[in-house]
Amino acid sequence: MVRGDLGRGAAVPLDLDDVERAAAAALPPDVWDFVAGGSGRELSLAANRAAFDGVFVRPRVLNDVSACGAESTLLGRAVRMPVAIGPVAYHRLVHPEGESATARAAKAAGVPFTVATLSSVPVEEVTAAGGSVWFQLYWLRDTGRTLELVRRAEDAGCEAIVLTVDVPWMGRRLRDVRNGFTLPDHVRAVHLGGGASTAHRGGHGASAVAVHTAETFSRSLTWSSVERLRECTRLPIVLKGVLAPEDARRAVEHGVDALVVSNHGGRQLDGAVTAVDALPDVVEAVGGACEVLLDGGVRSGTDVLKALALGASGVLVGRAPVWGLAAGGEDGVRRVLDILAGELTDALGLAGCAGVAEARRLTTLAAPGGGSVRGAGARSG
């Protein structure tokens, strides 16, 4: 399949599995492994998906759903559905227009787009699309350079800082190691100088991207760093990568505006608990003091409904928009978001919910033999 041709001369994808297959067919094998892979034995990667499959919702009946809609708010801003595109590095690996195309699709869909520190397109070009843009921040070894990125994001018009807190260094992603993965010359970390780096110089038995991040990312990110960030920015602060309720409570004490419950898509600690399983404890720990979003394994609108029922304010989707970008450029990303919006509206109505607020009052059950799904599901409806 030619990139940018999703749905033209081929069957229009009906769900995200269709888009995933189209992306896998469109990308070189090593790039596909970089996008799709996890760390270690990929236990957490597989568990993210299994955790969603183990949650079942109790639908409500005899409710008027004639005006069913998925509109909501995230970080105080109206959105067409409680979904944001999460940060993923190097979109130009999969399509020449990279993050710019993804941002335009997000704007058209009425959802936020999170531009990464490791973006292959400058944040100023991304915000020029005119949509709601959040900036994902890695804390660099050079604190001054880190805070310069924050100011640059503010000046560009970003609406939030998403501080990723689970990457002191990159997890051991064996697909990339086996492939000796390196960035092609045309793909650069434009926010980190934009020149050639160790990410472009690889060899057998190592991931050049992992070597580059090990040289660049701080291993000394602490709660004092969060305090420093709070002092230097007026933007909402979101911590991404929180799984423990103790950390969630401490985040509230430090005045963060939202948390993203996430195991980094199964790409950091292999064996880390899934976001689905961690979510109820985190929601309980913060007690409504900040928003709580879920990231990891979302593949359908029904998954979004389940996350809402478990107490999430919304979800991030990372890989799926990149699949759409790989298979169809901006149109492909729009198709991904259209599928999610349609499936979520369908799931809301069939669950007896006229909107997102009602979904948060649904109850859930774990599959027989499954894990301990709780949250809203601990209550009988």
- State the major sheet: 8 strands, parallel
CATH classification, class level: Alpha Beta
Helix content: 25-40%
Structurally, how many domains make up the residues?
A: 1
Strand content: 5-15%
Protein name: Alpha-hydroxy acid oxidase
InterPro entries: Aldolase_TIM, Alpha-hydoxy_acid_DH_FMN, FMN-dep_DH, FMN_HAD, FMN_hydac_DH_AS
Cofactor: FMN
Domain FMN hydroxy acid dehydrogenase: 8-369
What would the keywords be for this entry?
oxidoreductase; two-stranded antiparallel sheet; eight-stranded parallel beta sheet; disordered C terminus; globular; alpha/beta
Q: Would you write up a description of this structure?
A:
The protein has 381 residues and is an alpha/beta fold. The protein has one domain: Aldolase class I (TIM Barrel, Alpha-Beta Barrel). Helices cover 40% and strands 13% of the residues. The strands form three sheets. The chain has an eight-stranded parallel beta sheet. Helix 6 links the parallel strand 6 and strand 7. Helix 1 runs antiparallel to helix 13.
SSE topology:
Layout: H1 16-26, H2 29-36, H3 43-53, E1 55-58, E2 72-74, E3 77-79, E4 83-85, H4 98-109, E5 113-115, H5 123-127, E6 133-137, H6 143-156, E7 161-164, H7 174-179, H8 208-216, H9 223-232, E8 237-242, H10 245-253, E9 258-262, H11 275-286, E10 291-295, H12 301-309, E11 314-317, H13 319-350, H14 356-359, E12 363-366
Helix pairs in contact: 1-13, 4-13, 10-11, 12-13
Question: Care to give the gist of this entry?
Answer:
The chain is an alpha/beta fold and 381 residues long.
